[in-house]
Design goal:
The protein is an all-alpha fold. The protein contains ten helices and no strands.
Length: about 220
């Protein structure tokens, strides 16, 4: 029992001693790298001609490709903004629960927990990239947009799925569960609560926040 407690304390201080700004920078750079590789090796100019060849004239496709190449840098700009928003969203959800039941966690600690959780989604990004590189047969822009590893959307014919259900079905995946587990484990480390109670805390805070967000996205999509 004491060994487990000592290990938790050691891990907690190990996490606290990591330079969070450097860690955040690494997360951003690796995500940007994935985006660059995806655009260079998967979403090629040829893919646009393959995807739209039967729907649009060649000159129109060329204009779309030129526009895409011109504004590719926007993706690199959006990447850090997207990560910041996600981390803040998760930290705020956790902090609401922290305030209600008084876990005595600082918001800075919750930000750290949320940022470390981002490693799960970074792993997904690399797995997705590798999958698309290894199986390029019959790739389309629509498939790339919809595809998410080990998710519910990949178990059905996505062409038959209503547009407003695609995002919720992407969210139902193994990696989202792993993310919850990582958050719960880190909260356990910081608070010395049991893993079950920590996971329940994640479900009632981040889980509720995520559900609310999904409902909002679906509502907007329908309307």
């Amino acid at each position: 029992m004491n060994n487990k407690k000592n290990n938790s304390i050691t891990l907690k201080y190990g996490l606290e001693n990591i330079d969070i700004k450097l860690f955040f920078g690494v997360i951003i750079l690796l995500n940007v790298l994935v985006s660059i590789l995806l655009n260079w090796f998967v979403i090629s100019d040829e893919l646009y001609y393959q995807s739209f060849g039967e729907q649009l004239r060649t000159d129109l496709i060329s204009k779309i490709v030129d526009l895409k190449n011109k504004w590719d840098w926007i993706v690199l700009l959006i990447t850090p903004i997207n990560i910041i928003i996600k981390v803040l969203f998760v930290a705020v959800c956790l902090d609401i629960g922290n305030f209600i039941i008084d876990l005595k966690l600082k918001f800075k600690q919750l930000l750290r927990i949320a940022l470390f959780g981002e490693t799960v989604f970074l792993t997904v990004a690399f797995i997705r990239l590798i999958w698309l590189l290894l199986f390029p047969e019959n790739l389309t822009l629509e498939y790339i947009q919809v595809f998410y590893p080990l998710s519910l959307i990949n178990l059905v014919e996505f062409e038959n799925v209503p547009q407003y259900l695609i995002y919720p079905m992407q969210l139902v995946n193994i990696f989202e569960l792993v993310y919850w587990i990582v958050l719960a484990y880190l909260i356990k480390i910081y608070t010395n609560r049991s893993f079950d109670k920590s996971f329940d805390f994640v479900a009632k805070t981040y889980g509720v926040g995520l559900f609310t967000w999904v409902v909002l996205v679906v509502f907007i999509s329908i309307n």
